Amino acid sequence: MALTEKQEDIKRYALSLIGHGRRHHADDLYLFPVRDGYELSFRYVSEKKRYAEVSLAQGQKLLLFYKFMAEMDVSEKRRPQVGAGTIETADGAQRLRFATIGEYRNHEAMVIRFLYDIQQESALCFLFPEQYRQLGEQVLDYGLYLFSGPTGSGKTTTMYALARTLIQKRRRQVITVEDPVEIEVADFLQLQVNAKINVGYEAALKSCLRFRPDILIVGEIRDSETAKTAVRAALTGHTVFSTIHGMNKESVLSRMLEFGVLPSDLRQSLQGIIYQRLIPCLAQTPADSQLNGVLFDTLFFKRKETYDKQVDIQGTDWNALLKTARDEQLISEEVFRTYRF
């Protein structure tokens, strides 16, 4: 559609971008300042595709519309901001996470993450489907379970899907503490931290523990406060799920220690690390040309007693799993060489 600077045209164009991303199952929409305009592009797993370029004024008005929808401070252009919101499209409601940052010319850049509903586990695609079934059996004990992997690998989707699977087997209560709430799930009680009213992770955690959750989901661990909050919750005898970025499953331990978590607390609370990546699969049919499967690499710590020093470490071998996938012609030789450690 032709884009002008009229408010209604900007709104229609902004909604059409979200609709396009939803229909093509995009991971992200980028609005980046370039020269005298803005470049709009979509990311699909590891591939970024340029979509259009608009004028500087049009790009800034698109940003203003999205910031308003995300309940951000529309007057702030220098300080990084994050937000979330739901936008109605012709194909249905789309949950989104927004993030902005200002560059040296005082022009903002924005990335919009598409957050898709978790309707059923069959909607997820796994390189080895039995891995997901086994995960459901390994996250039953009390303690901390960390879901790791690069951006866009599906960590949050896996975490939420597992939680829903567990509450379907047994009537359980799931409470989430997030910044912001990413995926809306009717079965969960979802809390959002709010710095404006001094409700951080620690305050929200203290409040939600009074509701005796069977599973507590703490949003992405990106700082010391969140890391220590997740560990403390696990030490109180709860099942805690959280995500954390890491290069591999071993790096997760180092990151938690870097955040100031005491080794003794981590040793007592951590039950498992689930690392995952999206791996390009060989097409079985023409419709599968863009198919990517989740591959898990796990590490679980099994104790006879909560404070037992004797730990049975059970883990998988990433490179061996990739080799099996190649030998079974699920992935190509090129993908095998690219993704192995």
Topology:
Blueprint: H1 7-23, E1 28-34, E2 37-44, E3 47-55, H2 56-69, E4 81-89, E5 92-102, E6 108-115, H3 129-138, E7 143-148, H4 155-169, E8 174-178, E9 189-192, H5 201-209, E10 215-218, H6 224-235, E11 239-244, H7 249-258, H8 263-269, E12 270-280, E13 292-303, E14 311-315, H9 318-327, H10 333-339
Parallel strand pairs: 7-11, 7-12, 8-9, 8-10, 10-11
Antiparallel strand pairs: 1-2, 1-6, 2-3, 4-5, 5-6, 12-13, 13-14
Helix pairs in contact: 1-2, 5-6, 6-8
Keyword list:
2 domains, Rossmann fold, ATP hydrolysis activity, alpha/beta, 33% helix, single chain, Beta-Lactamase, 341 residues, Bacterial type II secretion system protein E domain-containing protein, 8-stranded mixed sheet
Question: Can you characterise this structure?
Answer:
The structure is a single chain. The chain has 341 residues and is of the alpha/beta class. The mean pLDDT is 88. The longest helix has 17 residues, at 7-23. The chain has two domains: 7-115, Beta-Lactamase; 121-339, 3-Layer(aba) Sandwich (Rossmann fold), CATH 3.40.50.300. It is 33% helix and 31% strand. The strands form two sheets. Strands 9-8-10-11-7-12-13-14 form an eight-stranded mixed β-sheet, with helices on both faces. It has a six-stranded antiparallel β-sheet with strand order 3-2-1-6-5-4.
